[in-house]
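Lab notebook, bench 4. The sequencing result for the construct came back, and we need a structural model before the next group meeting so we can plan mutations. Quick request posted to the team channel:

Model the 3D structure of this chain.
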Amino acid sequence: MKIEKLSFADRATDLLRAEIVQGRLAPGTRLTEIDLATQLGTGRGTVRAALAALEAEDLIVKQPYTGWAVRDISQKTLWETYTLRCALEGLAARLVAGALTTEIRDALHAAFQRLEQAEASGDGGERVAADLGFHRTLVNLAGHDSLSRQYFALSNKFEWLYRWSENHWPSRIDLASWHRPIVDAVLSGDPDAAERAIREHGESSLADDLRDFAELRRQSA
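Done. Here's the predicted structure in token form:
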């Protein structure tokens, strides 16, 4: 067994990704190769490779003549992210509901129990981890490798938006009651009901974020 060695570019990518996802680099923050190279103590080529990787994850955007910037939050960003996530998770829910086993039921129940525990803790970090973990578990249980690859390629962006929302409106929802319809629909063994539960969950979440985002914009105007 060998220990995997990370390149300097991989390490720089991980560090910058964490800063963005955790909200320490706020949406819209300008990023330059020179400043980042100085802060990270590495070369501009390493920083350039890290920025390219983060652009591929849709966490940053390249700005002509000025460098890069953390992707800003907009109604379009919210809409695109939620609709894409619902499409992927909806397929996963269909597949899981149509292929239930004791192991799948146990895994889904365990993921839901973590939601309940996180809700009881009142800790924002635990809430985010448990919520994202529930949805990742659902996708993993589908047994669809291509779906999983597509989903996890976008998972950092999903987490970025979730943490942004939780930072602005902490504990806005009760995690257990919010996800119970998904669990019930999937465990019913009805693929149509499972996909519908995911769609309704996503549409409601999107509506909440769009409403509160509009209010946030009005307050800052």
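The chain has two domains: 8-70, 75-220.
Will bring this to the meeting.
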